[in-house]
Amino acid sequence: MKLFEYRAKQLMAEYGIPVPRGAVASRPEEIASIDYPVAVKAQVLAGGRGKAGGIKFADNVAEARSRAAEIIGMTIKGEKTKSVLLEERLDVARELYLSLTIDRGSRSIVLMASGDGGVEIESVPEERILIVSVPLFGYSPFLTKLLKSRMGTDAAVTQQLEDLALKLYKLFISEDCELAEINPLVITRDGRLIAADAKITINDDALFRHAEFSRDADDLTPLEQRAKAEDIAFVQLEGNIGVIANGAGLTMATLDILTINGGRAGVFLDLGGTDDPEKVTAAFNLMKDAKPAVIFLNIFGGITKCDTVALGVKAAVQESSIKIPIVARIRGVNDDLARDILKDIGIEATSDLISAAKKAVAAGGN
Amino acid sequence: MKLFEYRAKQLMAEYGIPVPRGAVASRPEEIASIDYPVAVKAQVLAGGRGKAGGIKFADNVAEARSRAAEIIGMTIKGEKTKSVLLEERLDVARELYLSLTIDRGSRSIVLMASGDGGVEIESVPEERILIVSVPLFGYSPFLTKLLKSRMGTDAAVTQQLEDLALKLYKLFISEDCELAEINPLVITRDGRLIAADAKITINDDALFRHAEFSRDADDLTPLEQRAKAEDIAFVQLEGNIGVIANGAGLTMATLDILTINGGRAGVFLDLGGTDDPEKVTAAFNLMKDAKPAVIFLNIFGGITKCDTVALGVKAAVQESSIKIPIVARIRGVNDDLARDILKDIGIEATSDLISAAKKAVAAGGN
Amino acid sequence: MAVLVDGGTKVIVQGITGHQGQFHARSMREFGTRVVGGVTPGKGGSAVDGIPVFDTVLDAVSSTGANATCIFVPARFAKDAVFEAVSAGLKLIVVITEHIPFLDAMQFTTYAKLNGATVIGPNCPGVSSPGYGKIGIMPSKIFARGDVGVISRSGTLTYEIVNALTESGFGETTCVGIGGDPIIGSNFVEILSLLEADAETKRIVMVGEIGGTAEEEAATFISRHVSKPVYAYIAGRSAPPGKRMGHAGAIINRGKGTAESKIESLEKAGVKVAVLPTDVPGLMKKGR
Amino acid sequence: MAVLVDGGTKVIVQGITGHQGQFHARSMREFGTRVVGGVTPGKGGSAVDGIPVFDTVLDAVSSTGANATCIFVPARFAKDAVFEAVSAGLKLIVVITEHIPFLDAMQFTTYAKLNGATVIGPNCPGVSSPGYGKIGIMPSKIFARGDVGVISRSGTLTYEIVNALTESGFGETTCVGIGGDPIIGSNFVEILSLLEADAETKRIVMVGEIGGTAEEEAATFISRHVSKPVYAYIAGRSAPPGKRMGHAGAIINRGKGTAESKIESLEKAGVKVAVLPTDVPGLMKKGR
After folding, report:
1. Looking at the complex, does the CB of residue B152 fall below 8 Å from at least one CB of chain C?
2. Is C58 domain-assigned?
3. Is B336:B266 a contact under the CB 8 Å cutoff?
4. Which has the closest alpha carbon to B246: B308, B317, B204?
5. SS3 category, A263
6. How many CB pairs under 8 A join B and C?
7. What residue numbers bound the domain in which C166 lies?
8. Which one of B352, C33, C98, C114 has the fewest beta carbons within 10 angstroms of its own beta carbon?
9. What is the rounded CA–CA span in Å between residue B81 and residue B42?
């Protein structure tokens, strides 16, 4: 779960990491006294909000309110801005980059740092980035030496840097982060180190340990929230074919096959290894509300029995009167039974994946 | 560094481990009001104090004072009793054993437990002892299952046991222990789990992280304390030959050679890898005060140069007028120079280890 | 022979009294696996389908001589379950449980590695060696004994491909589902080296997907150390960056982990990469 | 050939600007070791006897291609120094520093093991391969190139025995001082397996002492896996229980770790055990 900037900064502040003075507002009227120049920053999870006009500046309350009024409601990369963060403008001497993330290969937490902050880290040449595993026993002083060496900080800033890195590591572990990124990490002209922007992603699977984040689930669309509640993987894409399959790999492969055949998936819905017809029904109801041009059901029955799926489909079609055309490909355990059940409700299921995919593409009008 | 029982229990109490109510006294007069039956326990580091008469019982202040008077000053296995611990007598239902220690082979912390407490763990059959490594990330609940299964505790006691084990682990790590042992770990008739005896050894090499223990260094004799201050390994043994050598292995081998030749070492003194003549002088002064019948100097010069040692010997003999006979065996880097220096002060150094050892044994009168 | 699961494998099931544990213990046994015990705390002394249940893994191991385990316990208890299995000396630990926090997986995979135990998973379908047995949840019917070793990050997609192989007359030595999470105990490279060393395995199928660089590392390993023909399919060609595609590991982040990069690396290493999953048996027939 | 230190070894010295570091860097170089750099934070860019000094191990490794390190830093910084060395990819880490807390040693030996790095020590004299070089503090003059592999928990006692060997006409392939602490990175078994595999090593000398069960484990390993003749000396026959004999590891505790137990185990494994340290060359001559 990605946190909004203001929430990430609150969290960093809780761990003692210096962040700019600031306040969040979801309506311009909420903005009260301001006695310093501020940046008014759209609180969206998408990157590149600056270029999209999501960051403006103001010197007094009236200006701040009118900038906030311009930004709130703005759509940035498909995401509607619901609130702004008003934050003191820093007197910047240098911008650095610092992050912690999970590394698959070494199965460890990795510290990334660069003296070139304030830009996307992808655009920084690799030789200017420090990438180093944090020993599994925690932050160790040699990391500070590496940070200093890579960033070229003086003794006073290096000391702040070590303190900050230790706190960020503690936050990362204690809050089960997937990513904790400070970019830019600013050195002000008076020599203070401040997290000027903050990105934190919490590991979804660890949310059971962090009840305090449940109220932050604003980054999910209503359909995504429903899917989450039903434990169905739901991904919104750009096309018009709704795909329901069982298993992440099979679902991805189904998307690929549709694409190769000229179609485009609009919603991706993974039943996982269920053997509960009600979950299938829930998935169809979700799909109905996602309004694709056609639903492509692709099941390879193993743990998930094909007839179980068919019963779920039948219940959904009958109860919720789904009018969207359904193309079904069913294979595996009890596929004969499944085909019979689907036939009853007018769906002709095939066993061949490729021909079914072509049929779905055609039905989608591509 | 071994802690006295009362100090170990204070530490356990700091970590929330239940210990009996108690008070420590170094003079009988210090014993004030007691409104419950007590055990009066000699505070010595040696084991087996019970059999030696170091634990007595009292029901009131007068009795407690006279028992304390009997115990304080008592010598138990060569160790003089300086204080007693007065402790409430527990209404014991069962006695268990629980300890944490360092395991060399697995390079991990090991949990040992048994349902048979109150006796030396060495006397408990191996199949009745649980020995299991604590995962390097800390105490994990499966250990509780193993404790329960080995000790046969009921649900209420098991819960207390998990809490206690967690706290003991935290103490072990935070205080850099080598051993943290509770024996017996008592279950009282009213179902409470209490650490009735406690042994804690702090890792000497980690004492720099634990300034609070310096005042507890009472387990060292005056000579041992002086040796420690000079960074010289000093071991008091039973014989009459004082051995000075460089390196722990060589020192032990020297002892073995003396023993094989019918002698017995009384003091063992390891210079380590020094190249400082003053340390050698300090060692000889220490040895002088340990009063052996003969001093056997065995040096294999490498990092420690032989002439450096000889200069230190010379200074000691001249400044402190050491009258104890000295047998020297010198070999290695600059041994010729060393032999000449020693000759000046009347010491005939040989290069052959075995003949020198025989000479030392003869000089010791064995 | 086969790898990981063979004639010497004796399995216990941690979480055997749960719905999944019970169902799959039975299915494993029907596939020929020696399922010698189960573990559920507090249920020691009982039995599930005649399989004895123990309170602790240590009890189960000392009573049965088990050397492998299949873990079905809920995500929040999975780390402790793996620690317990490692502590009891088990050397093959298959973790079926999904939705395990990354930090937990980092800890238990590390602890297992330190103690010389192999972890497969988490969030994986397990290991099947037709003729010897299976540990995990793969459907039994799709397999036939043969000479193809299969390694996959996916579940159902693997069944689809294995089924296609079997219907085309191929069979498998061992099929290993390594799991779709970012932090897994065994990667392609570890399993490739086992299959390369296995005399009975004559060819290898790798089913990868977007996310991470495990396929690229596998390609490097293949070009250096694998002499047997390797066939691959990579799912997720059409996935957009930044979207997690069902598996926690299947995400294209910071320009890394694209299907293109994986396919290119594999092809450079001499691997035949199928465009459609159903093309794999065809490619293999050409290669014969 | 030799083990651990050979013609490909390029060493850096962590703590090179200290008294010990400087002295031994020079001594190592005089023995033929390729000492390519040193590390002292804040002194990067300077040099010690012409050896370039770097601020970090990472800088030293990327500038010099070093693959081994010799650590002389004070005890309280040793853990961090080993972490830094492992992190920079060094695969041989010799820790000379003594008085390191057990918990620190547990952490750094574990971290090294996880990352495939070999730690020798702590509290050890290091490794010498006459003809190739040495890492550590062993006196150079006692060595001669030959066919004896030496492994020891002790320092000076080893020099005594090596010196006796050399004076009797023997010489060494590699002499490894594994250290006298309870927690060490490499035990007898690890080094025995290296020496067994080394073609040039024809016989092995093991110098043990009381405390722990490393010698007993070595005996088991020897009886199963070592074909070369092994000679041993065990120090501490006359040590009383409960007394720590200089080395933190040299203590007989709870009836474990006695010289008798070690000697008996080794003799059962076919090892010739010398009564006096000076007897080792004589035993070896008989064995020839």
Report:
1. no
2. yes
3. no
4. B308
5. coil
6. 36
7. 139-287
8. B352
9. 6
Known catalytic residue at A36:
no
Structural domain count, chain D: 2
Our CA dihedral for A66, A69, A75, A79, rounded to 10 degrees, sits at: 120
Cβ within 8 Å of residue A238, ≥6 positions away: A264, A266, C240
Among candidates D56, D58, D111 on the partner chain, residue whose Cβ is nearest the Cβ of A135: D111
Q: For the segment B23-76, what is each residue's pLDDT rounded down to a tens digit?
A: 999 999 998 877 789 999 999 988 788 888 999 999 999 999 999 999 999 998
Q: By C-alpha distance, which of C124, C167, C140, C102 is closest to C24? A: C140
Nearest Cα to Cα of residue C208 among C162, C287, C248, C263: C263
In sequence order, which residues have a C-beta less than 8 Å from that of residue D72 and are 6 or more positions away? Answer: D13, D14, D15, D16, D18, D20, D21, D24, D96, D97
Name which of A77, A79, A107 to mutate to probe chain C: the one with the most chain C Cβ atoms within 10 A of its Cβ: A107
Across chain B, mean pLDDT equals 91
- Cβ pair A237:C99 closer than 8 A: no
Measure C62 CA to nearest chain A CA, in Å.
32
Using one digit for the tens of pLDDT, what is the confidence trace for C74-128? Answer: 999 999 999 999 999 999 999 999 999 999 999 999 999 999 999 999 999 999 9
d(CA A234, CA A224): 6
Give the helix ranges, DSSP H, for chain A.
5-14, 61-71, 142-151, 155-174, 222-229, 248-260, 277-290, 306-320, 335-344, 353-363
Residues C49 and C146 in one domain: no
Distance separating alpha carbons of residues B165 and B139, to the nearest angstrom: 8
The predicted structure's pLDDT at residue A236: 86
Q: Are D45 and D104 in a shared domain?
A: yes
pLDDT tens per residue, range A109-149: 999 999 999 888 888 998 899 999 999 999 999 999 999 99
- Are B142 and C111 a contacting pair at CB < 8 A? no
Token look-up 């590496």 returns A146
Would you call A300 and C250 a contact, using CB atoms and an 8 Å cutoff?
Answer: no
Of B131, B130, B155, B142, whose CA–CA distance to C56 is shortest? B142
Q: So what's the pLDDT on residue B219? A: 65
Amino acid at A216: D
**In terms of domains, do C154 and C42 share one?**
no
The full set of domains in chain B, from first to last, is: 21-88 (3.30.1490.20), 92-211 (3.30.470.20), 222-363 (3.40.50.261)
Per-residue pLDDT of D67-102, as tens digits, reads 999 999 999 999 999 999 999 999 999 999 999 999
Tell me: do C244 and C183 sit in the same domain.
yes
CATH number at residue D281: 3.40.50.261
Question: Considering only CB atoms, which chain A residues are within 8 Å of C249?
Answer: 104
- pTM score of the predicted model: 0.94
Residues of C in contact with B140 (CB under 8 A): 79-80, 83-84
- The interaxial angle of helices B222-229 and B277-290, nearest 10 deg, is 180
C221 shares a domain with C106: no
Q: How many CB atoms lie within 10 A of CB B316?
A: 25
The answer to whether B292 and B302 are in contact (CB under 8 A) is: no
Q: Which residues contact C265 (CB under 8 A, 6 or more apart)?
A: C215, C216, C219, C220
Contact A244, A269 (CB under 8 A): yes
CA-to-CA dists, residue C48 to A19, C22, D264, angstroms: 57, 7, 48
Mutation target to probe the B interface, by most B beta carbons within 10 A, among C80, C86, C108 is: C80
Average pLDDT of the segment spanning B213-227 = 73
- Distance to chain A for C238, nearest Cα, Å: 5
Report CB contact under 8 Å: A249, C247. Answer: yes
CA distance D65 to D58: 10
CATH of the domain at D88: 3.40.50.720
